[in-house]
Automatic annotation (TrEMBL):
Belongs to the universal ribosomal protein uS17 family. It comes from the Bacteria. It comes from Desulforhopalus singaporensis. The keyword Transit peptide does not apply. This is Small ribosomal subunit protein uS17.
């Protein structure tokens, strides 16, 4: 069978919590245009992401990538840390 190269979804967000071992909570914000009024509204989603080396700290900006289900809520993996928190 031929291999199909599927591109995985990526999101950029900031780390909100790193209390768990090998896991972080990443908050991803985006602007959505209101259907009726046309005003832009900020919406945010929190994702549980796998961080196997425990490198992420609160406030870091990270790039997360979709992966297979790792636990009940964990379906994302930290790909890179874009910016370290001060």
């Amino acid at each position: 069978m031929s291999e199909i190269n599927k591109s995985r979804k990526t999101r950029t967000g900031s780390v909100v919590s790193n209390r768990m071992e090998k896991s972080v909570v990443v908050r991803v914000e985006r602007k959505v245009r209101h259907k009726l009024y046309g005003k832009f509204v900020k919406t945010c989603v929190k994702y549980l992401a796998d961080d196997p080396e425990n490198r992420c700290n609160i406030g870091d900006t990270v790039l997360i990538e979709e992966c297979r289900p790792l636990s009940k809520r964990k379906r994302w993996r930290v790909k890179t840390i874009l910016e370290q928190a001060v």
